[in-house]
Amino acid sequence: MSTSKCVSFNMVQMSSFQNDEFLGKEFQESIIVALTPLLEKNHPTQEICEFFSKHCKDSPRSTLVIELFTPVVHRILKHNTDFGKYPRMRTFVQEYIQALNCQNDGLKVVQALVKSMHGPGSNCPHPRVLPNLVAVCLAAIYNCYEERKNHDNVNSEDFDQIEWENKLLCYVSMMETIAIADSLFTSRMKVTIHNVSSDQTCGVHQTLLGIREGKEGWFHLYCPGGIACDDDGQLWGVMVIFCFLLECNTTLCVCVCCQVLCAMLELEVVEGHDMKMQMITTLQSTCEGKRMYAQLCERQIAIKEMQQKGGPKKLTLPSKSTDLDLTRMLSSGSFGNLECLSLAFTQVTSACAHDLIKLPSLRYLNLWSTQFGDQGLQIISEHLHKLQVLNLCETPVTDKGLTCLASMKSLRKLNLNSTNLSALTFEGLKEKLPALQECDVRYTDAW
């Protein structure tokens, strides 16, 4: 019997007692444990969604919510094409989100869900995730206001204002996280941020900072390496010019100003010896500035010593990094000792393979959610024979490139999750890679 028929068959049985008020909690959980394995490759039926929604409402802090419902929700958000046809599926996702919101530090748990579903790179391998999340949030916000309006109409006294606000805040927080993860939104916001930065009013500048201590603002999001930065820090440079720092001196403490000056020296964004000396003199005019500048000098000395000894052993490039960024970095010094390199969620392509093969000691390579394809895979397969761990999760590689991995006899761990791997190619790789101990083939035809 096929999996889809099994699901339908189970629901015929379950629909007869799913609304039974006397159904024990343990029995409900047993049903959930039995059902979820059937949903690894199938969407839940409307009856299953209703049953799962009820469990999220009744037992939001149940361990089953995170352990068993999370993979089901991930599949729905990645592959659903129309919530209009399956409204109960959307309701289930909403109730699941509210269950997450009931966990300890719930808002952060919900925001972590969004970040885990959509990579920071502009080329997310699951283009339906953001539209589906937005659809869920908008429908939930609409329902919140409809619920409040209905309570107002009947003058109900059992309306919980605090609970209503917490629920609304959860979805608003999700929308904010979704927006920051969307490169189109952050790109179009740059014009507004630039205009705010150029304003002469201190109060206007303050809107770029976090709303309170510990919270990030636009100033942090667009800094070099930030999730919204796509211009090598040009917009951020506008925000940190002298006029901006001077006007915001009541908000930006001496410590933050010193951090900015140190960052500008370290990133070498300032040209001219005289300007650099003026910045150094400014740093040394305060105790905090002296301490930060001393730490900067220590880091630069350590980097030079490390480069002379063959460079670092581990390295992770920030998101938004490109093939050109990798080329520039590898040409800046010696990296002969580099054993572990993570390019996950960057914008590198197969073109970077010509730089990767210049790393003779490389044993670990993470290319998760990049545009590294078959051509690049063919190149590194011919040269990186010491490679032991390779992560190609959510990359556009196909059987054409994956068959070349057979020559990499040292491979011990291989992640091919969400790639175009076929079952035939997978069987061939298992035969030709004797050292292979672990291979992730979930969400492929070989699964």
UniProtKB/TrEMBL annotation:
SMART domains on file: LRR_RI (SM00368)
Coiled coil: none
SUPFAM superfamilies assigned: RNI-like
Protein's recorded name: C-Maf-inducing protein
Transmembrane portions of the chain: none
Gene3D superfamilies cross-referenced by the UniProt entry: Ribonuclease Inhibitor
InterPro entries attached to this UniProt entry: CMIP (IPR052813), Leu-rich_rpt (IPR001611), LRR_dom_sf (IPR032675)
Domain of life, source organism: Eukaryota
